[in-house]
Each structure stands twice: as C-alpha cells, then as structure tokens.
What we know:
The chain is mostly helical. It is 72% helix and 0% strand.
Amino acid sequence: xxxxxxxxxxxxxxxxxxxxxxxxxxxxxxxxxxxxxxxxxxxxxxxxxxxxxxxxxxxxxxxxxxxxxxxxxxxxxxxxxxxxxxxxxxxxxxxxxxxxxxxxxxxxxxxxxxxxxxxxxxxxxxxxxxxxxxxxxxxxxxxxxxxxxxxxxxxxxxxxxxxxxxxxxxxxxxxxxxxxxxxxxxxxxxxxxxx
Length: 195
C-alpha cells in the first residue's frame, strides 16, 4: 500500500473538492495549485501529473474502502443479508459524504486511454465484487439464500443495480436520496433471493 504525505493528502482533497464543484474535466494542475496556494512547480514536487493525482485518489479510496468494509461492526446474530446491507450502506454513505469520488470512479470513459487509471478503477470494482460474492456464497452455504442463481450472476445483478442507482443519483446532481434508493434496490433483490 502506498503511503501519502500530509501535503499529498491535502492536494488529493483539494482535487476532490474541485471535481465536486466543477467536474473532472476542469481539474488541471494550474487550477489545483491556485486552489491550495501553491505554485505549479511546488505542486509538481508532490505529483508528476494530473493522472498521478487521480491514480493516487483511487488508490487512497481503495485502501479506505477495504479498511472500512472489513471493520464494519457486525453482530453474531446478523444474517448474510444484514451483512450485505451493512456493506452497501457504508459505501452509499461514503458516496454521499464524498460525491467527487463517484465522479472519479465513474469516469472510466475519460480513463479509456489511460490504462493505469482504468486498471485502478477495475481493482476497486473487483474488490467490491469479491466482498459481495463471498457474502452470496456464504449465504447459500448457510441456506439463507436460494440456490437458483449462481453467486457470480447474483453479484453482477446486485452491483449492477446499485451502480445504476448511483449513476442516477450522480446525473440528478445528487438531488435524489442515494441511501434510500440504494437500500430499496438491494432490499428488492434480497426479497428475491432470501429463503
């Protein structure tokens, strides 16, 4: 895992704020340097390029996401469905509190020609898929979920449904209620698969 300096974290947070306000297309080294009162050469001492800042942001989010999901407080009486709700609630709350990260993760069309950034977004998606697939597999094993649909397919359905909800929230200018809508989608899917 990459360690970031306080200054790098400050730069990444400023980049996140700029993306939140003006969109990812308006993130430049020049405007970012102005935002935090640094000269461009000073900023280049911390990051070589805009893409390195975006890559670091994604890495930072990936590490934060893994630690956050792995440390969700669970009770022994929680079902796999309860655990899955907790994972998605954690993700949705993070998106609501840091909407710019959604802009970065959902910018794969912009990253299309930037293999390093595309790969980092894939790593984040793969990690989420692993958490969900492990939950589905365990739920089936414990007899809490029916076995009609395979774990991989169910994982795709769940993540696809949530992803569509996040995208609609993003396109609404964050006006819809992401947590309520995301939970409604997840609850609907769980009703279909819980025994």
